[in-house]
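Comment thread on ticket #2218

A.B. wrote:
> Attaching the input chain for the structure job we discussed in standup.
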Amino acid sequence: MSSSEHSKRSSAAKLIINSWGHWLHFTYVPLLIAAYFVSGVSESKELKLLIAYIAVCVYVLVLMGLLAYFIISYSRKARYAEALYCVHSAIHQIRDINIYLAHCLQTPIEYEAANFERRLWSVLNSVAQAFDIATAVSNRVCVKLIGGPKGSEYAKTLSRDSVSQIQSEKKDKAKAEVHLINKNTDFHLIVSNELRYFLHNNLRNYPNYCNTSLDPTSGHQGSWPLPYVACLVFPIRFTTVEESNDGQREDRISILGFLAIDSAARGVYKERYDVEMGAIIADALVSVLQTWPIVDAKARFAKEKQQNHQTSTNVE
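C.D. wrote:
> Ran it. Output below, let me know if you need it in another format.
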């Protein structure tokens, strides 16, 4: 279901709920008054009191139910408003990375990998904090790059937030290039254009879910080995218009990597808002992943050239 269809259905459901609440309220009150006056025909005061008590209790219970519904429904929306501060902070940090990379593009010798990694790490921390606020549970965030030849592409971790960086440091070093796209359900569905993004709130129940961190022979039985059960994955991609051999102009989608958000809690992500919040960050990261490989390559070349020059000078 697309986000627009989901939004329309949610709006329709709320209209139905509001409409029923409206009519139930104005139907219940006249019925209550009518029942009370009918009971007045009887001389039994106990019957009148019983009807009054039942009516008041039912009315209070209905009001409490509606209050609970609105508290649950609107408390998360209030958290999204708070999360916007962190999203805004992440966008500012991405802007600063772009400025830094643009400077290093002109003067590659000044580029420092540690500086870039620290800046990107701060961005992912802000994103994780935004989702922590919105979902009220802990979230992890990472950026993965796509590499490898066509047909054998793999996803390689570029950066993680501070929590998942500690948890996955050894695994990232040991399996730097083994996350094959076609052996990871979420990456594969996105790269093959079957999904615009991947969202699932309980991967234990996902039919035939594949992940290179899972034992394919286990069948997901027993304890779940992954540190998360719910995840959101977005492509970091851009579209270019190319002209084919027959002169037709067509869009070509290039995927640079993925923005992955996950949580150990089930049922935490909502399609209506969480998807859009994550997609904002994924779109903003496009320029970073376009420029960074060029800067990194130029910096390596410039520093090797400088070292060679110093070596030759020392020899002379």
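A.B. wrote:
> Thanks. Noting for the ticket: The chain has a mean pLDDT of 81.
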